[in-house]
Write a structure and sequence with these properties.
215 residues; 8-stranded parallel beta sheet; alpha/beta
Length: 215
């Protein structure tokens, strides 16, 4: 969970495996899967079947980082781990059972992440996840501009989470914003349209990795 994580939300689903393999050839090992239910956020994306198909199509070194933007994630986390997720992250705003949900993920065999929306106080992270995800845009849509005040939130989250927690950032991450996020304490950088929206996703991945100090 350290490095640039291309998000398949912005990939061409008609050739999804091929696009992921292209960025893996450039060095990517974390593949970010954004799951949306049409309730917690308006869009609907995909469920465990797509995660399972992707897991089967990719080499073993691909680590699937599943980000659940869904209501009551505790009802579904085990299905995503069974489908091949190495990490499952859910939103603190989406369930009253944060500690319970985190334990379900770990018991199923994956690492557990907790995400915070831009409007949620950092103090809401009252547990010790394996991954703390600081949303740097409002969740639900790719291609949004980076919220500049997120830098202070990343720094605060990194101090609160401790050294054993990966600090992930998601939203508006590109070669311009990755560096400031890294200096604030981020260790994992989700990038979707900044990679798959470019003519050469592999080169875009390398540029962001270099900016984040991961290349």
């Amino acid at each position: 969970m350290r490095g640039v994580a291309p998000s398949i939300l912005s990939a061409d689903f008609a050739r999804l495996a091929a696009q992921v393999e292209e960025v893996m050839a450039a060095g990517a090992r974390i593949i970010h899967c954004d799951v949306m239910d049409g309730h917690f956020v308006p869009p609907i994306t995909f469920g465990p079947l797509v995660v399972s198909a992707l897991r089967d199509a990719l080499p073993d070194e691909a680590f699937l980082d599943v980000h659940l933007m869904i209501e009551r994630p505790e009802r579904h986390v085990a299905d995503f781990v069974k489908a091949g997720a190495g990490n499952v992250t859910f939103h603190v705003e989406a369930t009253p059972h944060v500690d319970y949900t985190m334990n379900l993920i770990r018991e199923a065999g994956a690492t557990a992440g907790v995400a915070l929306n831009p409007g949620t106080a950092i103090e809401a992270l009252a547990v010790e996840p394996d991954v703390a995800l600081c949303m740097t845009v409002n969740p639900g849509w790719g291609g949004q501009p980076f919220i500049e005040r997120s830098i202070d939130r990343i720094r605060e989250l990194a101090k609160r989470a401790g050294n054993d927690t990966a600090i992930e950032v998601d939203g508006g991450i590109d070669a311009r914003t990755a560096g400031p996020c890294a200096r604030a304490g981020a260790t994992t950088f989700v990038a979707g349209s900044a990679i798959f929206g470019r003519p050469d996703p592999a080169e875009a991945f390398r540029e962001i990795s270099a900016a984040a100090g991961c290349g």
